[in-house]
Design a protein that fits this description.
Layout lengths: L8 E5 L3 H13 L3 E5 L2 H10 L4 E5 L8 H11 L4 E6 L4 H9 L4 E4 L4 H31 L12
Parallel strand pairs: 1-2, 1-3, 3-4, 4-5
């Protein structure tokens, strides 16, 4: 295939265990740091402990939170984390809803790795660019801060 990406952290959230394990293993073989969980609740708990660059999120999960609910909560925990939505059901309305909420992209299952890998790379690049903009803005803010420090600010 010849497609390489910089190593980054990917969380796969899908209630279908076989699909989840297969996808996580395939991502690891491509040198990505990938982990998988089977529910929205587990994804939220893991995201609170460990930051991820990109989340691959199944929209239709019958137990607990569905993908859209999970996506909304993930945004609160990691606002810069990019999310790629997956579904085994051709639910155009749900995909459109996810895109309106800010999902990076929307794919139908079964997803081909050749289709997913470039999207993962693009999602990571978008997140990295956003983080870089924030860093530059903070540096500019520091450079333009007024005058010398007061006695209370000095170390």
């Amino acid at each position: 295939m010849g497609f390489t990406v910089e190593t980054f952290r990917v969380l796969v959230v899908d209630d279908e265990v076989d699909f989840l394990e297969t996808l996580v293993n395939r991502l690891k073989k491509r040198k990505l740091e990938a982990e998988g969980v089977t529910s929205g609740e587990a994804a939220l708990e893991l995201m609170k402990k460990t930051p991820f660059d990109v989340v691959i999120l199944d929209i239709k999960m019958p137990r607990g939170m569905d993908g859209i609910q999970t996506f909304r909560e993930l945004r609160k925990i990691g606002p810069l984390t990019e999310v790629i939505l997956l579904t085994g059901h051709a639910s155009l309305e749900t995909g459109i809803e996810g895109m309106k909420l800010g999902a990076f992209d929307y794919l139908l299952k079964p997803v081909k790795l050749e289709e997913l890998m470039p999207k993962l790379a693009a999602a990571f690049e978008k997140k990295a660019a956003q983080e870089e903009k924030i860093k530059k803005a903070r540096i500019m803010e520091m450079k333009s801060s007024p005058g010398p420090m007061s006695e209370g600010e000095k170390e």
